[in-house]
Amino acid sequence: SLMRIFASDKVSSLMQKLGMQEGEAIEHPWVTKAIENAQKKVEAHNFDIRKNLLEYDDVSNDQRRVIYDQRNELMEIESIKDTIDSLWLEQLQNIFSTHIQPGSLEEQWDIEGLEAGIFELFGMNISVRKMLESDDSLYEETLFDALAEEISAMYAEKRKALGEELISSIEKDVMLSVLDSNWKDHLAAMDYLRQGIGLRGYAQKNPKQEYKRDAFDMFSDMLDSIKRDVIVILARLDVDQILNPAPPPMETPAAKVRRNDPCPCGSGKKYKHCHGRQA
User: Nearest Cα to 63, choosing from 197, 205, 195, 211?
Assistant: First the structure.
């Protein structure tokens, strides 16, 4: 197969002229010279692969730089409130424009799809149909504004209940955790892409260009996933659970615990205020 890829057609016609049979030992000096040349081409090809891998690594390093810069910025900044606020609107806009094509007539709108998309992303049951039925003046832009207001109000309540300091800490933790898990998945996908990309050279495509394009698309998809995942998690924050976490589970103590004794679960509270309440 290497002869097919790297040797010329002349070699095979030459072999036929010399009366070579398939599987027969190749000893003619012309043919051995052609094989040597093919071998050199193989070595040069292998060198190209190594060189290309270095260039592929450059693409990975550029992406790594972007992610680590973002990560460092996240670690240093006190509050990412502005970033989060813009993410709510951006994510709503994505869903909205998917189901309500810009400049389309109301009868063309996919209201059910919009409602399902809002529930999937924000965990909110909003009846867009009822909103439209109860207000004739709603059109594309004002409907978007009305939805944005409802969704913002939902998160503003959480923010108020938790307080600026706690919500800022939660937002940063969520963003860092989502960024790290998506980046880890992306690196695995990039490895897989790098292993298979060389094959495209045989399909008359430029593997380097193909790799760069695919890597860029995958990186863009990863950034979209990060934004989406952050909003999905923040929209579902359970304020009560955060402010009043359930005490850690505890095995039934052997000896009788008195009401005013420290709770055996190690929470530091008195038994009557902790697991004693459940008992």
Answer: 211
Apex 183 CA angle, 180 and 189, nearest 5: 150
Q: Of 264, 269, 268, 267, whose CA–CA distance to 251 is shortest? A: 264
Q: Is 85 exposed, middle or buried (0-12, 13-18, 19+ CB in 10 A)?
A: middle
Mean pLDDT of 140-168: 94
DSSP state of 202: G
Q: How many Cβ atoms sit within 10 Å of the Cβ of residue 228?
A: 18
The one-letter amino acid at 122: F
* Alpha-carbon span 105 to 230, nearest angstrom: 33
Can you give the pLDDT at residue 85? Answer: 92
User: What Rg, from alpha-carbon coordinates, does the chain have?
Assistant: 32
Q: How far apart are CA 190 and CA 60, in angstroms?
A: 8
Instruction: Check residues 38 and 208 and name the one with the higher pLDDT.
Output: 208
Distance of alpha carbon 186 from alpha carbon 224, whole angstroms: 12
Does the predicted model carry a pTM greater than 0.85?
Answer: no
> Cα separations (Å) of 10 from 15, 18, 86, 204?
9, 12, 65, 22
Of 175, 184, 213, 210, nearest in space to 196 by CA? 210
Provide CB contacts within 8 A for 161, sequence distance 6+. Answer: 239, 243
